[in-house]
Each structure stands twice: as structure tokens, then as C-alpha cells.
Amino acid sequence: MANRTDPAAKSIRGTNPQNLVEKILRSKIYQNTYWKEQCFGLTAETLVDKAMEIDHLGGTFGGNRKPTPFMCLVMKMLQIQPDKDIVVEFIKNQDYKYVRVLGAFYLRLTGTDIDVYRYLEPLYNDYRKLRLQLPDGNFSLTHVDEIIDELLTKDYSCDIALPRIKKRWTIESIGSLDPRKSALEDDFEEEEEKEEEDERNSELDNGTHEKDYYRGRSPARERDRDRKRDSHRYRDRDYERDRDYERERGRGRDRDRERDRDRDRDRDRHRLRDDKDYDRERDRLREWEGRERDRRDRRRRSHSRSRSRSRDRKDRDGGEHRKRHSRNSTSPRRHGDGPEDEPKKKKEKKEKKEKKDDGTDHPDPEIAEANRLRASLGLKPLRP
């Protein structure tokens, strides 16, 4: 329950805010003692007190890669998801530099591209020193502007993969962000004016300068010289950063122009290829339609011929069938019913009639025997 994201929190970049931290680092933070003891039950108001107690920043350190308190507080902010106004106040806080870096790191993870450039670029003018804990456990010295430059230009910071953001010149090209104006332009003008005044007064102050040289160096003059040297160092570093930005911006524009030319060239090439493919496909379609038309004509002609042949065959077979049917319409004759057998039939009928008339088939056996004798003698049969 203590590691669950606030139910009222919104998804960041389409996912749970805590998923912006890798799972291995997230599990190490959940098992860390500082997370269990100091970060339990923190809210957006009480988180400020814990942030004010931080004395260094970093990701993980040591052999078992323990997370730093700075990373635990970043994870807690992802869990409770404070309002944007509170994060902006963290960034604008000038009294506590680690609170400012904590707000900038959280905004880099969760903010939009425009908000990242709008609220983090002014921190380039913060040159305060910071303690950075290295992976081997030792500490090194860095500055706020270097951390901000790392957040805006690098892919990894404090062992966390930063979400990708658009280049500044890309956002400027669409009009969503004003061109960057360096905060050192006024300092450059002031420095030029001071140099001109120094050149004017150098001739007048030659005598007094020699006296001061022989009299010795004063602490006030030494502090002014150190301050001027530091300002020149910071100015040179910011000048190099601005020059790198302008160079990267010019390269980006050149890449855009080359990409547009390549895209136009590819579009023309694809258009010509599409036209050729269209002509080839059209010719192939026409050839296929011609072949299909010829095939249908051949099939139609063969079908008509087969129908005519079948009609002729039916007519021919129909005549023979009618003849055969007319020939076989009469009842079939029995054996011996031909015209040549008619005299035999008459003779057999006559013999049967005569045989019946001689009385030999009489039912009385004695009369039948007497008729047979009379028939053999050629006498007429007896008529009972």
C-alpha cells in the first residue's frame, strides 16, 4: 500500500508515473531504509521539509547500488504527483539549491517540451556549486547550470532514462516557443562599457596605479579581481554553450532542408515509379481482358456448336425412335403365329374338332371305348 501511486494521479506519457523509473531502480528504492522511514506518509506540503534537508544529489552508489535520498524524493514526487504550481515554486526557490534541482528533475520527467524549456532554461544563470555522489560512493563538485544542461541535452541523468523531448529549434520553427535570449547580453554590454571607461581612465591612473603596486595588494582589490575572473569564466562557459546552441540550431535547419530535398526527390521517384507501374498494370489488365474476351467467345462458339450437334442428334435419334416405337407398338407375336403357320393351325383345329366329334373323350369310359372301336372301323360314334 505504501508503494502504490495516488489514485487521483494522472498518467504521464500514457503510463503510471512511477513507471518512468526503471523496475530495478524502483525495487531498490522500495527496499531502501530512507524510503521506508523518511518518505512514508509524505504529502506535497511535508515534502518540502525533507527536500530542504538534502545535502547532495545522485542516482545510485556502492556495490549493491543503493539509491540516494535525492532519488527517493523524486520517486515520492512521482507517487503523490504534486500540482504544477508547487513544482514551479520548487524551481523558483533561490534559497535552497537542492530543492530547485529536485523540482527541475521532476519537471523534466513529467512536463511537456514547452514547459521544460520555459522553466529550466532560466536556471542556466545559476552557478552555485552542488555535491554529486558518484557510482563508486565518492563525491564530486558540479554546478546547477551543468545539471540543467545535462537534463536538457542528455538521455540519462542520475541513473534514470529521461523521456525524449523535441529540439528547441523544432519548437521554435512551429511558433510554440520564442527564440532563446541569453541572459548574458546585458552583462556583455556592461563589460564593454566598463572596458571603454577603463581605457579612458587608464592614462590618468597610471601614476596612482604604480604607487598602489609598490604599496602592495589590498584585499578589496584581490576580491574584485577574483570576482572579475569568475565572471569571465562563467561568461566564457555560457558563450560556448550559446555558440553550441546556435551551431546545433544551424545543423538542425540544414538537416531539415536536406530531409525535405530527399523527401521531394523520393516523392518524385515514387511518382514516376507509380506512373510506370500504373501503365504496366493497365497494359497487363488490357491484355488479360482481351484474353478473357477471346476465351468467352471461344466458349460461346463451342457451346453453340455442341448445342446444334445435340439438336441434330436428337432429331435423328427421335425419328428412329418413333419408327422403332411404331414398329413395336403392336403386341409381340407368339412362336408359331407367323403367316406361314396359318394352314397348320387350321389343320390342327380341324383335327381337334374331329377328335371331339368321334366321342373318344366321352366321360363314360365304356362309351369312350366303344367310340374308339367304332372309329377304327370307320363307323359313326355313339351319341348318348
Automatic annotation (TrEMBL):
Keywords: mRNA processing, mRNA splicing, Nucleus, Spliceosome
Keyword hit for Nucleus: yes
GO CC annotation, single: spliceosomal complex
Residue numbers spanned by region Disordered: 182-276, 291-384
Keyword ATP-binding: no
Compositionally biased intervals (Acidic residues): 185-200
Record-annotated Pre-mRNA-splicing factor 38 C-terminal domain positions: 179-265
InterPro entries for this protein: PRP38, PRP38_C
Biased composition (Basic residues): 296-311
Domain of life: Eukaryota
The family this protein is said to belong to: Belongs to the PRP38 family.
Protein name: Pre-mRNA-splicing factor 38
Organism: Actinidia rufa
